[in-house]
Amino acid sequence: MSNIIIKSPREIEIMRQAGRITAAARTLAREMVIPGMTTAEIDREVKHFIVKSGAKPTFLGYGGFPASVCLSVNDEVIHGIPGHRVIHEGDIVSVDVGATWKGYVGDCAGTYVAGKGTEAAKNLIAVTRQSFFEGIKQARAGSRVGDISHAVQTYVEQNGCSVVREYVGHGVGSQMHEAPEVPNFGRPGHGPTLVKGMTIAVEPMVNAGTWQVKVLPDGWTVKTLDGSLSAHYENTILITDGEPEILTFAEDLYQ
Known about the structure:
Elements: H1 9-32, H2 39-52, E1 56-57, E2 69-73, E3 76-78, E4 92-101, E5 104-113, H3 119-136, H4 145-158, E6 162-163, E7 169-171, E8 178-182, E9 199-202, E10 205-207, E11 213-215, E12 222-224, E13 230-232, E14 235-238, E15 245-246
Antiparallel strand pairs: 1-4, 2-4, 3-12, 4-5, 6-10, 7-8, 7-9, 9-14, 10-13, 11-12, 14-15
């Protein structure tokens, strides 16, 4: 617990606003996932929205990342770099975005279909999204990080999919990545104890095929090893005395 930062009421209130901006940026990106749109156009509009909101795009320049949004298409898992790629009918696009407001970060993601997707693609997205909600049922003070991890993994695997091992959720606050790590796999009753005032990003990354992945030569884009589809769903949450609070809440949270 020594490296885990418990947030003060003031910090939590700032993170709520950061979360609102971030969630609204995700909604904007979701609305732009349509056939004919380029990933660069989505990135440009989301960046403009975040800046107009008085925040900073957290991802831009983070570790050298060249854009404000990670946009990962079809078999891309995470960290897709926006560019000239045109989104086609039936593509699924994972949108991962962060906004920093008064020094604190909101971080969230979702995967959306352009036009009419296949039943397999829509099922993968639904399983990924629901696995997040299964996970945060365990996100209560006194529980362990491993309880969240196990709940996500169990739901995903019961539905015939697999969870990525190499990349995990994390604490979030004044830094985008803080302690503790929040894996999407593991054993219940293990890992750090959840304490009121902790803020963490729970983010299942789920593949239709193998859990194994590879990194492309650009050093960023992560793809499924077998070329199967992948989906990503994430929200920043606050551990409370009762139910966790989703700080990146939006009206389309369940879509």
